[in-house]
Amino acid sequence: MRGKEALEMEHPDRTDPANPAAGAAADACARVVVREGVLEIPGQVALYHGGALPAASIAWRIEGAEGAPLIAALGGISAHRRVYGEHGWWNGVVGPGRTLDAGQWRVLSFDYLGGSGESSGPRPGEAFPRISTYDQADALLRLLNHLGITAVHGIVGASYGGMVALAFAERYPERVGRLVVISAADRAHPMATAWRSVQRRVLRFAARCGEAGEGVEIARALAMATYRSPEEFAARFSGAPRTDTASAVFPVEEYLFARGAEYAARHSPESFLCLSESIDLHRVDAGRIFVPTTVVAVREDQLVPVSDMRRLAARLEHSRLHEISSVYGHDAFLKEAALLRPAFADLTGSPA
Fold it and tell me: Which of 301, 308, 331, 346 is catalytic?
């Protein structure tokens, strides 16, 4: 182990003697703690698609009530180990008083292998092996073993994280009680692979021209157009373009490239390529997954069509399909906390 591994107290006590129920909730918040660290794995780590890492590091973080049941929360390829709080990627769902209440649960996450976090990933200009969702599942298993955790109460996975959750359940069913899989199927849809293939080709071309950073910006801008729905774009971006420049600049264009620039500032070109390809290489056998699973489909999702999610639910041995409708499309898992709450009822035991 290297790096930070510590306990930190958060949320000062806000007990109100005139309101015992509120006081109890505040007291639960006061017990929320954070542990994080970096697990160093010596020796070669063999990978699913061939090749190996000469050594591997897995950066992890646990937040929640000390001693509470543990849930792993895994997001898209942009996600990281900070699930809620400052810089948290899922603050709408995880935290004190939210659907995954940090006063009742501990939430584990980690930086993906091949990503831009503190786990092992590609260095600029260096070759890096292909990473599978099975490799990410193995990373989670290594973390559980390192932390002395026999099994997690559940895994909540959205987008790429849902793929990792399915891979983990296929390989290690005895280590997880239940899955909630949001906008992630047993394999990528060919149309989604088509869009991502163009993104990767754009980025590689830009890199050959010495403009890898701009390539990430363009690729991410194109990706953003697939994450949301036509209905949302029609409502938000139907205004007139700016024409005070050499070429017209459309409102939707400004939005997409602003998001692309933000992403390019935080993520390396090599990591984008690695994890984008990992999505399209994803294949699991749904017929071999016996862990009870709540499958959450978004009808407006362009990347993971509702028909794919319905087929996944039909192939799983123990599943419940929960469909929602959202103008946010694939990004609904980030934006629609209220709509997602009923899908978590089987996992948390809380009323829908």
Answer: 301
Considering only CA atoms, give the Rg of the chain. Answer: 21
In the chain, the percentage of residues whose pLDDT exceeds 90 is 84
User: 253 in helix, strand or coil?
Assistant: helix
Residue of 80, 267, 322, 330 marked active site: 330
**Active-site residue among 57, 119, 120, 159?**
159
CB 11 within 8 A of CB 30: yes
CA 178 – CA 291 distance, rounded (Å):
6
Q: Letter for the amino acid at 241?
A: P
At residue 245, the pLDDT reads 84
Sheet holding 293-298, edge to edge: 8-9, 32-41, 56-65, 106-110, 70-74, 154-158, 179-182, 293-298, 319-324
Q: Is 74 exposed, middle or buried (0-12, 13-18, 19+ CB in 10 A)?
A: buried
Read off the pLDDT band of 352 (50, 70, 90): low
Bridge partners of residue 156, in order along the sequence: 73, 180
Residue 335, amino acid: K
Domains of the chain: residue spans and CATH: 8-187+285-348 (3.40.50.1820), 191-278 (1.10.1740.110)
Q: Where do the H-state alpha helices sit in the chain?
A: 20-30, 133-147, 160-171, 190-208, 212-227, 230-236, 251-266, 269-281, 306-315, 332-335, 337-340, 345-348
Whole-structure pTM value: 0.91
| Cβ-Cβ contacts under 8 Å for 252 (sequence gap 6 or more) | 233, 236, 237
For this structure, is 109 an active site residue?
A: no
Task: Respond yes or no: is residue 301 known to be catalytic.
Answer: yes
Confidence of residue 17 (pLDDT cuts 50, 70, 90): very low
CA 268, CA 301: separation in Å to the nearest integer?
Answer: 26
* Separation between Cα atoms, residue 231 and residue 327, nearest integer Å: 6
